[in-house]
Amino acid sequence: MFLRALSLAKTPVLIAIFVTPIRFFLELAGLPENVIFIIGLLWLTLAFAVYWGIKLYNEKQPYLLLLLSLIIFSPISRFTVFVVWWIDTKWSIGTHYGLYFDNWVQALLNHVVYGALVQIIPGFLLGSMTLAIMRYRKSVKK
Known about the structure:
Blueprint: H1 2-28, H2 33-36, H3 41-56, H4 62-90, H5 104-141
């Protein structure tokens, strides 16, 4: 089960590793916050949760697999936010990443742990709704 979830999370993790630096550089380029807001890990998580819901509805334990995939994906994807926070605070760049936390313990806890929960909870809810809809549609077609 864990290996299957790891396999599902592998490509999303690779994509997520590039999302935060892209957003960081767009912010440095001066794009307005309402433009770069759409490029974020929460939106990416929700998109993958829907994708996994569609892909996993025929699996034996799809909800557990969805949850494990999110648990693997979310903290790893959030680690780049911590790295960008460190870069921003180390060199006083002035992006939104460096605004809120005074030390690396606060940043790590909030960006990686709390941030992962902010992704896992709505991702699991949306993925579960997708799974339920897909399973309902399958049962109606029979």
